[in-house]
């Protein structure tokens, strides 16, 4: 039963992980981005760069369309410069969406305020998975900045540029100003789009690690953490404090760089596309460069900083504080501050002081306005044909009643920015109370997501306003006259009646719970507090269903505020849907030092006139998708750890007093609960114990949640079980087919040479290993590892063929003995060599060839893992083959050479040898398994060197370990007596056979 459970659970975990991968690819949220189109054919003019002879693969281009191309070819640049840096595998042509919209805007301005877009060609190198080119790309980007500065300096201008970096391009922009602080005087700001800023997605080689480490050290030395928002070069602070640094993430649709990696401790502002006004949606990794909603907002932000610089030239405004204010206006909620005081209900809004003289004044003209005070607490006014007179809706301040404490106000298509104000309505005009002047409350208003209308809302604490302004009597909502459809709603309520508290269900609880049944049609706002959500994989599906509507098609807006994640507030909105599902999750892990009971706040804005039912349940599909997005990189380390522990179990099958060494089966060792329980039970304890010693490097398992560790363990175990079964099937049934495939892969003009080469694999593996080493030195270490895996499979299939031949031969001999009466020798009889083979063969083994396969099967899987880890190097080598035959630098070379030399010895020797010391080797394998889990989950490249050390240890053991003593004391005399007895019995049997032959001849 336990064996079946250990098979079913890993396979189920693999199925769940694959399900999460499928969901994360395209079934979480639809892509609602609109395409960006060019009005004319885009033109990319290559610009010469001084020093480009060092980097012939790279280039610098200027974007243009139509007649503007002639100005670019003449090097006439008069706009504010923007440099676009593509990401991993990205093209310089990806600038066209941003540049084309900016060019159209410049033409609409009669080519007054405009932007000049430049783009860097980095040869579409996969710098996200191969870090060997990151330093070259940084150096070339430095040259490009200097060249752009010279282009503008030729006309007597000194201008600073903005760098927009996508993905790894954002990290390159951060690196170029950190490597040389002098280049920072030419850079006004950096905007990163879906970039892994402080942490990489995965560390596949040590070049990535050293690159990020150098940038971190440079920015830590030259950039302030606290107070960076107010820094400028004139203040005499650190050199990089004067550069505006904005980071932007894509949200849940970005499955390559998840949202937790897009923020930086050095950023002046962090924003997510689903919280940027007029974008309001999540974008995938590539969509960030062409999503029209985001492209428009990005260009509006850049255009807002353009100032004239004389001679018809334009540049970016100086002063980081002003730039930051503009960035906050366009890329974040413009009137929201993280320093605001929280009131008793946890509402975060700016409070007006008692004297509000600093607030803008609004002048009213009662002769042109209708002043209306409604006694209803909650109502909605719709004017589909517009209104012919300005309307001022008055909301009374009633401080002594809880039912009149909060008000939620929302206006649609209001053409006035200062639509919300407060005053003391003590004057009288006609039959209405009014006030000539009111104080603006615009700092309380926030835009509300909508793709069809201009929609704004405000949530006010009326009692707090009354205490801050005792003379006030009303809050005013001013709707100017218009011919457009206009709507406003007012909802006055007691906040205690609209607050709902829920708790995150347990990991095994997926029941749906109703938290609101048939809400009143006048209710437009609810606040839901979710406690118990601390990990990023925890997800709640919030279902909002419109039970009945009064002829309106509603829009549901949910704002998600995570207290410990600054800049990650998220708006989710769905228009004209009767049922809406919003997924709630923490974008980053809750800090361990934070308060454990701080809930996630959900502000739910409903459509007035509809009755809603709200339900929630834990979402398995999105939870699995989030796990896949954030923790798939942990699987290789767990694969190696489980495989090493299973190999250790295979090597410890032989009892201590047994003279013959036996290797167990890999499948049986994998399905034992020991390795899995050992890692789960002692991995975290070992990490906490090692954390007590400052001299020991910090481990990587403390921050991983236990549920994630268990799932990753099970997924790794399931992958190994399925891979082992598939490999046995391939060896058993596809060996001949694999031979044919390899013959075609190595096909030479002369067929005899092809067959000779294949026979060399079988008979002279040492020569093949030497050839693989030559491939590693002349091409790429990853290529040689892939070839080594293919050769290893051929050798295993040949060993299995030998095993089958012996098995068939022995079976046929037994059948012949039974059919023809041939006498079989009893067990224990026969030659000395035969008794030795019987002594080495145990009850669960059928032959020496099968034991050889059992020994080499885990090693073959380790070679496959090592080859897969170095596939990025292989792809990079193949992509740049026409530039260089050898990959330089090659992070896979040293591990590949070490493993290939070891394989040459292991293939040539008759392994496994019947030697001592397997106990010590098993201990080393256990240590390697724990090192893999403790230090190689994030730093994946360390697995290369760990596996190389494992192969070196196994090879050295097979070479230098002494042979086992096959018999005990007095064993030689016993063997000699057995040999004498066998000789006598053989002579007697021969004489008996001669006598029988003579009798037959006489007859």
From TrEMBL:
EC annotation from Swiss-Prot or TrEMBL: 3.1.-.-
InterPro entries, alphabetized: AB_hydrolase_fold, PGAP1-ab_dom-like, PGAP1/BST1, PGAP1_TMD
Stretches assigned to the GPI inositol-deacylase PGAP1-like alpha/beta domain: 77-305
SUPFAM superfamilies: alpha/beta-Hydrolases
Principal subcellular localisation of the protein: endoplasmic reticulum
Topology in membrane: Multi-pass membrane protein
TM ranges: 628-647, 676-696, 708-734, 741-758, 764-795, 850-872, 892-909, 916-935, 941-960
One GO cellular component, as annotated: endoplasmic reticulum membrane
Positions of region (Disordered): 335-360, 966-1003
Subcellular location: Endoplasmic reticulum membrane
Domain of life: Eukaryota
Keywords: Endoplasmic reticulum, Hydrolase, Membrane, Protein transport, Transmembrane, Transmembrane helix, Transport
Biased composition (Acidic residues): 969-979
GO MF annotations, alphabetized: phosphatidylinositol deacylase activity
Domain GPI inositol-deacylase transmembrane residues, every copy: 708-955
Similarity remark: Belongs to the GPI inositol-deacylase family.
PANTHER family associated with the record: GPI INOSITOL-DEACYLASE, NEGATIVE REGULATOR OF VESICLE FORMATION-RELATED
Function of the molecule: Involved in inositol deacylation of GPI-anchored proteins which plays important roles in the quality control and ER-associated degradation of GPI-anchored proteins.
Protein's UniProt name: GPI inositol-deacylase
């Amino acid at each position: 039963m336990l064996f079946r459970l250990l098979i079913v659970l890993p396979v189920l975990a693999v199925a769940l992980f694959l399900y999460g991968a499928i969901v994360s690819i395209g079934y979480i949220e639809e892509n609602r981005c609109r395409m960006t189109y060019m009005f004319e054919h885009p033109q990319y003019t290559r610009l010469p760069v001084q020093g480009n002879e060092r980097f012939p693969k790279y280039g610098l281009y200027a974007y243009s369309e139509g007649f503007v191309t002639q100005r670019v070819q003449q090097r006439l640049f008069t706009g504010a410069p923007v440099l676009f840096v593509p990401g991993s595998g990205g093209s310089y042509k990806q600038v066209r969406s941003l540049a084309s919209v900016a060019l159209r805007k410049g033409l609409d301005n009669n080519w007054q305020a405009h932007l000049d877009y430049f783009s860097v060609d980095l040869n579409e190198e996969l710098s996200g998975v191969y870090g060997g080119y990151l330093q070259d790309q940084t150096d070339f980007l430095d040259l490009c900045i200097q060249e752009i500065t010279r282009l503008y300096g030729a006309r007597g201008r000194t201008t600073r540029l903005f760098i927009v970096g996508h993905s790894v391009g954002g990290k390159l922009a951060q690196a170029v100003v950190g490597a040389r602080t002098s280049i920072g005087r030419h850079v006004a700001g950096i905007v990163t789009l879906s970039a892994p800023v402080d942490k990489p997605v995965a560390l596949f080689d040590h070049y990535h690690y050293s690159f990020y480490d150098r940038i971190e050290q440079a920015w830590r030395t030259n950039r302030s953490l606290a107070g960076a928002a107010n820094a400028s070069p004139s203040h005499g602070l650190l050199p990089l404090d004067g550069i505006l640094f904005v980071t932007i993430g894509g949200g849940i649709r970005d499955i390559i760089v998840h949202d937790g990696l897009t923020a930086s401790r050095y950023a002046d502002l962090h924003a997510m596309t689903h919280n940027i006004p007029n974008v309001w949606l999540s974008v995938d990794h590539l969509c960030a460069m062409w999503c029209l909603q985001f492209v428009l907002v990005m260009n509006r932000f850049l255009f807002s900083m353009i100032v004239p610089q004389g001679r018809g030239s334009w540049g970016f405004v100086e002063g980081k504080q002003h730039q930051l204010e503009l960035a906050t206006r366009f890329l974040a909620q413009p009137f929201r501050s993280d320093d605001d005081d929280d009131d008793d209900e946890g509402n975060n809004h700016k409070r007006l002081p008692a004297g509000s003289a600093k607030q803008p004044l609004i002048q009213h003209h009662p002769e042109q306005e209708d002043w209306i005070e409604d006694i209803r607490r909650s109502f909605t006014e719709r004017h589909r044909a517009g209104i012919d007179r300005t309307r001022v809706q008055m909301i009374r301040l009633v401080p002594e009643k809880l039912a009149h404490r909060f008000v939620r106000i929302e206006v649609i298509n209001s053409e006035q920015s200062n639509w919300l104000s407060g005053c003391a309505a003590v004057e009288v005009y006609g039959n209405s109370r009014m006030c000539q002047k009111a104080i603006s409350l615009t700092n309380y208003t926030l835009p509300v997501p909508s793709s069809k209308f201009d929609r704004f809302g405000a949530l006010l604490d009326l009692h707090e306003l009354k205490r801050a302004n005792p003379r006030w009597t009303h809050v005013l909502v001013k709707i100017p006259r218009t011919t457009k459809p206009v709507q406003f709603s007012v909802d006055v309520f007691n906040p205690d009646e609209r607050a709902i508290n829920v708790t995150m269900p347990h990991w095994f609880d997926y029941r749906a719970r109703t938290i609101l049944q048939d809400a009143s049609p006048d209710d437009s706002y609810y606040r839901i507090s979710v406690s118990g959500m601390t990990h990023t994989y925890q997800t709640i599906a919030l279902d909002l269903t419109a039970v009945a509507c009064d002829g309106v098609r509603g829009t549901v807006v949910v704002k998600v505020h995570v207290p410990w994640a600054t800049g990650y507030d998220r708006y989710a909105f769905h228009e004209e849907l009767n049922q809406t599902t919003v997924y709630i999750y923490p974008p980053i892990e809750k800090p361990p030092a934070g308060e454990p009971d701080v809930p996630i706040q959900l502000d739910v804005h409903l459509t007035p006139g509809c009755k809603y039912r709200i339900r929630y349940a834990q979402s398995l599909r999105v939870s699995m998708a989030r796990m896949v997005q954030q923790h798939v990189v942990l699987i290789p380390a767990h694969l190696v750890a489980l495989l090493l522990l299973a190999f250790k179990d295979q090597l410890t099958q032989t009892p201590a007093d047994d003279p013959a060494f036996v290797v167990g089966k890999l499948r049986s060792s994998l399905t034992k609960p020991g390795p899995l329980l050992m890692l789960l039970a002692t991995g975290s304890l070992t990490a906490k114990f090692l954390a007590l010693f400052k001299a020991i490097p910090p481990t990587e398992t403390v921050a991983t949640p236990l549920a994630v560790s268990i799932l990753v363990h099970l997924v790794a175990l399931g992958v190994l079980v399925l891979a082992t079964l598939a490999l046995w099937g391939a060896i058993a049934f596809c060996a001949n087919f694999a031979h044919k495939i390899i013959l075609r892969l190595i096909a030479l003009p002369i067929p005899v040479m092809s067959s000779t080469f294949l026979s060399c694999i079988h008979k002279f593996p040492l020569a093949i290993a030497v050839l693989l080493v030559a491939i590693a030195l002349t091409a790429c270490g990853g290529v040689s590892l892939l070839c080594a895996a293919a050769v290893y499979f051929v050798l295993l299939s040949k060993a299995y063929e030998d095993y089958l031949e012996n098995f068939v031969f022995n079976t046929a001999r037994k059948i012949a003995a039974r059919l023809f009466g041939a006498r079989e020798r009893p067990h224990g009889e026969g030659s000395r060599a035969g008794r030795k083979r019987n002594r080495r063969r145990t009850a669960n083994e059928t032959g020496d060839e099968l034991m050889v396969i059992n020994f080499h099967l885990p090693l073959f899987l380790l070679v496959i893992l090592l080859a897969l880890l170095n596939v990025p190097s292989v792809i990079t080598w193949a992509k740049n083959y026409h530039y260089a035959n050898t990959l330089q630098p090659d992070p896979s070379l040293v591990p590949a050479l070490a493993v290939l030399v070891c394989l040459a010895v292991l293939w040539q020797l008759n392994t496994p040898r019947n030697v001592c010391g397997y106990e010590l080797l098993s201990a080393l394998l256990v240590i390697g398994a724990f090192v893999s889990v403790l230090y190689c989950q994030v730093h994946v490249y360390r697995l290369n060197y760990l596996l190389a050390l494992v192969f070196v240890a196994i090879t050295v053991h097979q070479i230098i370990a002494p042979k086992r003593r096959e018999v005990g004391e007095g064993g030689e005399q016993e063997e000699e007596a057995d040999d004498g007895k066998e000789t006598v019995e053989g002579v007697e049997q021969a004489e008996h056979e001669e006598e029988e032959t003579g009798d037959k001849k006489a007859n």
